[in-house]
Write a structure and sequence with these properties.
heterodimer, A: 113 residues, mainly beta, six-stranded mixed β-sheet, five-stranded antiparallel β-sheet, 11 strands, B: 117 residues, seven-stranded mixed β-sheet, four-stranded antiparallel β-sheet
C-alpha cells in the first residue's frame, strides 16, 4: 500500500517568514495530493490540493508543488501569520479508490509574533 | 447546516467494554470515513462507506465494526475495547459530484477522544 512520509515534524518561523513542509510518497500510481490544516481541538480542513497532471498550484499565500519523478510534494506558506499556527498534514490517494487517503504524520507549525 | 457531527465528544471505557460512536452528516454526501489519530502517526483509515448499506475495510480495521443503515449516519463500534484503541476518532464525509477539488474534499467532524483503561 501507499506510504507517505512528512518532514519536519515541528517547524517554528518568525511572523512574515516563509514555511516549507515536504512529503514523499511510495506508490507511483497515486495521483491526488491534498493538504489539510488541523487547529487545536478541531478536525482537519482542506486548504489546498493538487493533481498529478499539474506541477504547481497557488492560492494566495499558500502553494503546493509536485515532482512526480521524485515522488515528492511540498507545501509553501509565505508571509506567515500567527493564525497559520496549526498541524498540517499531507496526504496521497488514487482517484477512483473511494478517495482513500493515506496521511503523513503531520507537522506542527508555530508562527512566532 | 451543521456539517459533520460526532457523538460523544469524550468517553472513558474499561478494557472489555463495548461502545458505539455516532457520526452524522447533513450534506447529503455519499462517502463516509472513520479515522483514528494517534500522536506522531497522522490519521489512519479504519473503515469507509461508499453509500447507504455499504462498508469496506481501511488500513486498520481490526477490533472495529461499522454500519451505514442510513445515508446520513455512519456508526463505529468497538465490541471489546482494548487500551490500544485509546485514540482520537474522526469521521469524515465526501461528495461524489462538483468540481474536482470539491468532490475530493473530505469534511471532518470535531472528533471523539476515547480512553480505554
Amino acid at each position: 500500500g501507499e506510504n507517505v512520509e512528512q518532514h519536519p515534524s515541528t517547524l517554528s518561523v518568525q511572523e512574515g517568514d516563509s514555511a516549507v513542509i515536504k512529503c514523499t510518497y511510495s506508490d507511483s500510481a497515486s495521483n491526488y495530493f491534498p493538504w489539510y490544516k488541523q487547529e487545536l481541538g478541531k478536525g482537519p480542513q482542506l486548504i489546498i490540493d493538487i493533481r498529478s497532471n499539474v506541477g504547481e498550484k497557488k492560492d494566495q499565500r499558500i502553494a503546493v508543488t509536485l515532482n512526480k519523478t521524485a515522488k515528492h510534494f511540498s507545501l509553501h506558506i509565505t508571509e506567515t501569520q500567527p493564525e497559520d499556527s496549526a498541524v498540517y498534514f499531507c496526504a496521497a490517494s488514487l482517484e477512483g479508490s473511494a478517495r482513500q487517503l493515506t496521511f503523513g504524520s503531520g507537522t506542527q507549525l508555530t508562527v512566532l509574533p | 447546516n451543521a456539517g459533520v457531527t460526532q457523538t460523544p465528544k469524550f468517553r472513558v471505557l474499561k478494557t472489555g467494554q463495548s461502545m458505539t460512536l455516532l457520526c452524522a452528516q447533513d450534506m447529503n454526501h455519499e462517502y463516509m470515513y472513520w479515522y483514528r489519530q494517534d500522536p506522531g502517526m497522522g490519521l489512519r483509515l479504519i473503515h469507509y462507506s461508499v453509500g447507504e448499506g455499504t462498508t469496506a475495510k481501511g488500513e486498520v480495521p481490526d477490533g472495529y465494526n461499522v454500519s451505514r443503515l442510513k445515508k446520513q449516519n455512519f456508526l463505529l463500534g468497538l465490541e471489546s475495547a482494548a487500551p490500544s484503541q485509546t485514540s482520537v476518532y474522526f469521521c469524515a464525509s465526501s461528495p461524489t459530484s462538483g468540481t474536482f477539488s470539491s468532490y475530493n474534499e473530505q469534511f471532518f467532524g470535531p472528533g471523539t477522544r476515547l480512553t480505554v483503561l
